[in-house]
Write a sequence for this structure.
């Protein structure tokens, strides 16, 4: 057998819409979240990302003979807070368990995890979909465990252990606290199942970010998703949802390490299409893990996985049970932030944005920065205009986050203030922003340095207005005849006379005053 | 000045007093032990490593501090041996296994740190059954340790190196570890004292795990008071061990001054006497009971009906935990690495398998296989699950027994030291040696063994075990010390059973035993 040979062979798939005519997809998502605790799950080693390999290690996380674990109390609190935010029950008493299997990057050859006594269980997360509806994803459990070391397989074509010339293991990651969040089977999503998967991971990420328990950077592996997919036959046209739910679940595959929101949706979609082709051909789905290939958009076979995988779980005898008091759980509940979806709705109302505007803001990831900008004194409209408009475009061009452009919420508030006070018009404000982006200082400093200021001297403006009226007697007559909208042509010329440094509204006022 | 060999025959208390009064120096005392080790270890094989330089450096440091008038811990300058199961930074630590041969720990076990804080020169590391699996020290990858009483006999196990070292005056004190009797049974068969504290009473951090829920570290000594002094040095809460008890060490030294047994209720566990116990063992036990009764103790009989399942439960729980604890010895990061034969560019799994095959002895493999099986899905409930229920029942038996008695007593081991090689082919017979000691480990309660004389039929020492409720370790020291005094009175001489042991000489190993 060869992994290469298998990955080279692309499998048959059925078109997505066609697959959905015959099958009902059921998903299950397992998300591993790396907590942002200062120290590891069972020892005092640092957890910072990017340190030199094997510099954040000790006898405990290296699994040296004689070493013993001690539970990180902060990690337990984070686990409880995550559980509460997912509307879970919190165990009064639960234990860690050893999951026994051999792998070179696992120092003890068992992972200290939780088995039949998770810290949190039976919850749900409401997920907003693109069409504005909400889908409830039921949570089976959230449990605590430790990460393994990180293997790098060098040589060989696949980057996997088979065929590699040698492998390097970095144990800095070994013992980093993880929370594994497992959904119940997600049924009833129909053709929206892949979208639900993405929206769930997205909502979970927002929630974890709001809880401040993880860096939630998927590209750094802080959040890793395994997607289980199975298909079952459609109950038939006109079947009730109860009839559909009664159809037994199909065999599932588990696609490992799908590590971006987009990939979660694509991988689920691909597996649905692939399963449909296998089932259509009369074959059955092999219960196995699958690898997702971001570049080609397909999954390939990993290793067979059966329910008989025997990890010989037993309660971890080196640790005492975790038994949070009800009082402590309630104290932690009191620390929960407003749920992100609820918060978004509240902010949309407060800011007076349309659904479309709010979606733009969310897509730009600008909720927090707009909130700060409004708090700094800008109008919600100005804050949205800047952060999702010019600045978003600039960030996109530069390939950086909008918050990394060097423009602060205070800058926007100050600039908005200058516009509202009538010192700058829109085009001048954009010039000022150029200066701020170029590092020339605050909006006020840039405006001063560049001499940008609407002329407040009515004398100069009045002279310009008189000059333009005199030069355009026919237009002036039209206005005198009541065609007020013709004033626009004169305003443009007045602005030209003033080299743009005039308040157009004021010019209009003067023109109308003289001609009507 | 006292001559060197005599120094080694003092008790730890006498050594501490002699050092404090300036009668001799720690360097002299330590050197005397090192000389004796050099002379006798080739015969006994009690030590796997001797740290001459380290021990003498600590001794010299203690002497200098004492000369400078510094106030020092009670046992400062008194040398000690450490079972090779405890990690010692810079000194090879093998747990008696080929797989760790040559491994030098980068850190000290908490108990080793405490010995260093107490300024006790560490003489070296003592031999043991591989990963503490055994009752004879024959399962050491580095050859058996011999019993100083009779070199053809086993010194008990797994801590036979520590018990032999203490019995042969190679060290006044030693560290042991007791998972099912590995401190107490070696104590019994070598005529020395050994105590297993309450589970959680002494830190396990840095002590190579056999079975985490059963392992406990404790003192080996020649007197009850000496054991208590060492107990207080190593005992007490350790934040590095989650199972460590967060409470002060029970007042064991104070208790060991006790001589009063009036009104004390002492329970004989009926399940731990009679059938299966060697005549001489039973006779010495009965004698001790009489002494206790005569001294005013109230002797009661208690029954612990679930003890009959203790051995079965123990041999499910221990192998289960051990199979997991020993999984880390995979040749990936440390320890023996053996490439599989005839395989070109072997995989990591193949290297793990061949290394574990080469690194582990038969008894270790036997228990890993047993434990792996017992934890397997489909068998877990029937084996590990059932065993845990038995464990609860045994703990309840003890609770009920301790309502009737302040302490419980039994012979420590059913027989005196058997011959090297006698039980190697019969694991069950070997396991039965721990029948009286195992229940305490399953329940987490403390137990102490002290010599109760020698068996008439073979002239070998016999031990009596005293058990106390969890966290009440001082009770077993109080009763042990009182009984020790009564026996000493009866025996005369120095009061030690070791008076009757033959002097170990080089070249005394019989051809048969070789």
């Amino acid at each position: 057998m060869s992994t290469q040979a298998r990955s080279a062979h692309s499998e048959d798939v059925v078109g997505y819409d066609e697959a959905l005519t015959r099958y009902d997809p059921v998903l299950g998502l397992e998300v591993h979240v790396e907590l942002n605790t200062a120290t590891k799950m069972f020892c005092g080693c640092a957890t910072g990302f990017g340190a030199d390999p094997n510099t954040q290690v000790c006898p405990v996380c290296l699994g040296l003979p004689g070493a013993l674990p001690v539970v990180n109390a902060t990690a337990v609190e984070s686990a409880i807070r995550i559980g509460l935010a997912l509307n879970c029950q919190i165990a009064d008493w639960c234990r860690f368990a050893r999951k026994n299997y051999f792998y070179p990057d696992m120092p003890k050859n068992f992972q200290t995890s939780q088995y039949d006594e998770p810290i949190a269980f039976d919850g749900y997360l409401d997920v907003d979909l693109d069409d504005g509806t909400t889908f409830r994803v039921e949570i089976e459990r959230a449990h605590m465990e430790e990460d393994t070391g990180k293997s790098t397989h060098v040589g060989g074509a696949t980057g996997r252990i088979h065929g590699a010339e040698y492998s390097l293991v970095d144990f800095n990651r070994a013992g980093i606290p993880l929370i594994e969040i497992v959904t119940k089977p997600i049924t009833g999503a129909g053709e929206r199942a892949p979208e639900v998967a993405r929206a769930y991971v997205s909502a979970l990420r927002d929630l974890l970010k709001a809880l401040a328990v993880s860096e939630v950077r998927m590209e750094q592996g802080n959040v890793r998703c395994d997607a289980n997919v199975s298909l079952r036959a459609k109950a038939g046209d006109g079947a009730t949802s109860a009839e559909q739910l009664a159809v037994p679940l199909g065999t599932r595959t588990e696609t490992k390490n799908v590590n971006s929101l987009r990939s979660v949706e694509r991988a689920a979609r691909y597996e649905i299409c692939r399963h449909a082709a296998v089932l259509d051909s009369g074959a059955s789905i092999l219960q196995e893990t699958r690898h997702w290939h971001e570049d080609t958009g397909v999954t390939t076979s990993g290793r067979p996985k059966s329910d008989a995988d025997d990890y010989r779980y037993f309660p971890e005898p080196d640790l005492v049970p975790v038994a949070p008091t009800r009082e402590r759980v309630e104290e932690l509940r009191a620390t929960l932030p407003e749920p992100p979806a609820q918060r978004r709705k509240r902010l949309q109302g407060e800011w007076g944005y349309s659904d479309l505007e709010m979606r733009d803001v969310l897509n730009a990831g600008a909720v927090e920065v707009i909130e700060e900008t409004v708090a700094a004194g800008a109008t919600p409209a100005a804050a949205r205009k800047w952060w999702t408009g010019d600045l978003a475009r600039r960030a996109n061009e530069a390939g950086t986050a909008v918050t990394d452009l060097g423009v602060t919420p205070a800058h926007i508030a100050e600039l908005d203030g200058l516009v509202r006070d009538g010192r700058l018009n829109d085009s001048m404000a954009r010039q000022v922003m150029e200066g701020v982006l170029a590092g020339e200082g605050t909006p006020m400093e840039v405006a001063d340095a560049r001499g940008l200021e609407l002329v407040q001297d009515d004398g100069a403006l009045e002279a310009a207005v008189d000059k333009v009226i005199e030069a355009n007697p026919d237009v002036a007559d039209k206005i005198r005849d009541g065609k007020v909208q013709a004033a626009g042509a004169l305003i443009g010329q007045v602005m030209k006379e003033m080299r743009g440094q005039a308040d157009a509204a004021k010019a209009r006022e003067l023109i109308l005053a003289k001609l009507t | 000045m006292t001559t060197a060999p005599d120094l080694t025959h003092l008790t730890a208390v006498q050594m501490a007093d002699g050092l404090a009064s300036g009668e001799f120096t720690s360097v002299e005392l330590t050197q005397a032990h090192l000389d004796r080790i050099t002379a006798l270890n080739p015969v006994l094989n009690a030590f796997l490593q001797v740290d001459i330089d380290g021990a003498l450096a600590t001794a010299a440091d203690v002497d200098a501090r004492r000369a400078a008038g510094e106030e020092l811990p009670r046992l400062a300058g008194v040398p000690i041996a450490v079972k090779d199961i405890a990690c010692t930074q810079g000194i090879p630590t093998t747990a008696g296994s080929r797989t760790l041969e040559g491994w030098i720990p980068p850190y000290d076990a908490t108990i080793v740190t405490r010995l260093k804080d107490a300024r006790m020169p560490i003489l070296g590391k003592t031999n043991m059954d591989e990963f503490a699996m055994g009752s004879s020290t024959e399962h050491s990858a580095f050859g058996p340790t011999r019993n100083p009483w009779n070199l053809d006999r086993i010194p008990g196990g797994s801590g036979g190196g520590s018990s032999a070292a203490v019995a042969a005056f190679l060290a006044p004190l030693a560290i042991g570890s007791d998972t099912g009797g590995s401190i107490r049974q070696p104590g019994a068969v070598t005529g020395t004292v050994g105590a297993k504290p309450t589970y959680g009473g002494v830190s396990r951090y840095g002590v190579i795990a056999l079975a985490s829920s059963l392992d406990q570290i404790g003192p080996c000594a020649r007197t009850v008071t000496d054991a208590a002094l060492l107990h207080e040095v190593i005992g007490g809460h350790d934040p590095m061990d989650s199972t460590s008890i967060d409470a002060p060490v029970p007042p064991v030294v104070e208790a060991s001054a006790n001589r009063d047994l009036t009104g004390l209720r002492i329970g004989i566990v009926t399940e731990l006497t009679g059938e299966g116990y060697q005549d001489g063992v039973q006779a010495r036990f009965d004698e001790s009971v009489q002494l206790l009764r005569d001294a005013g103790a109230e002797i009661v009989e208690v029954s612990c009906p679930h003890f009959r399942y203790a051995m079965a439960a123990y041999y499910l729980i221990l192998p289960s935990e051990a199979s997991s604890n020993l999984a880390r010895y995979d040749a990936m990061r440390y320890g023996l690495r053996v490439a599989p034969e005839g395989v070109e560019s072997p995989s990591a799994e193949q290297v793990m398998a061949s290394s574990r095959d080469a690194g582990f002895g038969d008894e270790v493999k036997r228990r890993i296989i047993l434990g792996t099986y017992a934890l397997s899905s489909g068998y877990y409930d029937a084996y590990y699950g059932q065993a845990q229920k038995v464990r609860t029942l045994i703990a309840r038996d003890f609770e009920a027994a301790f309502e009737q008695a302040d302490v419980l007593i039994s012979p420590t081991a059913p027989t005196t030291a058997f011959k090297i090689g006698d039980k190697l082919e019969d694991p069950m017979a070997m396991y039965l040696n721990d029948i009286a000691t195992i229940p305490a480990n399953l329940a987490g309660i403390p137990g102490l063994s002290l010599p109760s004389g020698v068996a008439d039929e073979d002239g070998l020492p016999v031990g009596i075990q005293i058990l106390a409720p969890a966290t009440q370790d001082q009770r077993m020291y109080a009763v042990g010390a009182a009984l020790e005094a009564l026996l000493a009175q009866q025996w005369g001489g120095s009061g030690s059973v070791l008076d009757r042991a033959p002097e170990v000489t080089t070249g005394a190993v019989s051809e048969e035993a070789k």
